[in-house]
Specification:
The structure is a homodimer. Chain A is of the alpha+beta class. Chain A has helices at 4-10, 18-27, 83-88, 109-118, 121-146, 149-159, 161-166, 169-176, 180-196, and strands at 29-33, 38-40, 48-54, 57-62, 68-74, 79-80, 95-98, 102-108. In chain A, strands 1-8-3-6 form a four-stranded antiparallel beta sheet. The first copy, chain A, has a four-stranded antiparallel beta sheet with strand order 2-7-4-5. In chain A, a hairpin with a 5-residue loop joins strand 4 and strand 5. Chain A binds a DNA duplex through residues 148-149, 168-170, 178-185, 187-188.
Chain lengths: 197, 197
DNA sequence: CGTCTATTTGAATGTACTCAAAAGCGGTGG
DNA sequence: CCACCGCTTTTGAGTACATTCAAATAGACG
């Protein structure tokens, strides 16, 4: 498995020396998972923060009736996990599951605390990473509040064209907050408009 | 104005020496704002991150039709601003406005960069702060996706009873993503149920 | 080719919105 | 102290949007 993408992801925001990179990699756990496999189950403690080397995943909340509500997708060069559970080491609200076969680079909570001490810059890296995720979720809330259903769909496809190919439509519906049937109807309506224009 | 709440807010997550506290306070700008006053206008660059000493504020997105969509409220002991604009120093997506008269402790972008260098622990503090905000927004997305309108309202009141008294109902409606009329109807329905039980 | 799962379609229903009007409430001035 | 004004909340009727449920169709995989 290629850890190069991990290092270049980190180097987007901080510069590590060769020694620091080695130290980091010595703590990284590389693992493969199969499509459908769970990386984290809601209720368990999130022991690892995961960097995606290849494949795709989803994190979701399972409500009282057992319905999944997708919080986020992740593909190559993204991080995924339940950050709330990870940082507090309390039971997770969310479940993380592979959509495709995946290769992940995992950092355990203990190892990350160790790295924060040895390489304080890592603190900066995860601050920036969290800030970006925070801004993304803010945007998502606003999109939910201010866009029409059709706009939400078009916005998603425009922002994440990579996902449209790799994520089944019913998952996209869950992410956007509609039923699969309704998303199907939206898509139909949009394709009619394209034919006319 | 009392900066004690600022220091005790920070000391929840990191320990500062007296010297560090002094250095921090020397960079803090204390300011008063009146009800209705804007702290940040969408499109401007967010120059300050704000800690609320007293009063209440809202941050919101104004859509193309001019409608406000409230992203967050803030009261005493909370932080508010447009973190995306602040960290990138690019134009803000959101507007921040006082709901009541406010006393704020402001930290400028430049001063915060300086503090990160002089007191690296501050980096840790803002990482933790951002993580908590991130977890909060995640929860909000899931609540939006998984709860009924009535549940969303009850959930809000339960989680933030402080706000129910201080925030007009039409702002709460905006935050929850309903029209004011609809929120009024939900409240009526709930109060009927209480009478019966 | 057959099976399983995902997507599409349609009818009926329910949820939330729009618009318009009335009622409530706080502040100000006569 | 009351009357009036402006703003918020309530109420109701009609409408639009999104869901549910059931069934048909399409795709993927062995």
């Amino acid at each position: 498995m290629n850890t190069g993408t991990l290092l270049s992801n980190i180097s987007k925001h901080i510069n590590l020396t060769l020694k620091e990179e080695e130290l980091l990699l010595s703590k990284v756990r590389l693992r493969k998972f199969l499509k459908g496999q769970y990386i984290l189950q809601g209720g368990d403690i999130c022991k690892y923060i995961n960097f995606v080397i290849s494949g795709s995943l989803k994190s979701f909340y399972r409500d009282i009736e057992g319905h999944e509500h997708i919080l986020a997708f992740a593909i190559e060069d993204w991080w995924i996990g339940d950050l709330g559970s990870f940082t507090t080491q309390k039971p997770a609200d969310y479940t993380v599951q592979c959509i495709e076969n995946c290769e992940l680079a995992q950092l355990s909570y203990e190892d990350l605390q160790f790295l924060y001490k040895e390489i304080p810059k890592m603190e900066r890296f995860f601050r920036i990473l969290t800030q970006k995720a925070y801004v993304y979720f803010q945007r998502r809330i606003i999109d939910n509040l201010s866009l029409t259903a059709k706009e939400k769909y078009l916005n998603f496809v425009k922002q994440y064209p990579q996902f449209e190919q790799r994520v089944p439509q019913y998952m996209m519906a869950s992410y956007l907050g509609f039923t699969p049937e309704f998303l199907s109807k939206i898509r139909k309506e949009i394709s009619f408009k394209h034919l006319k224009s």
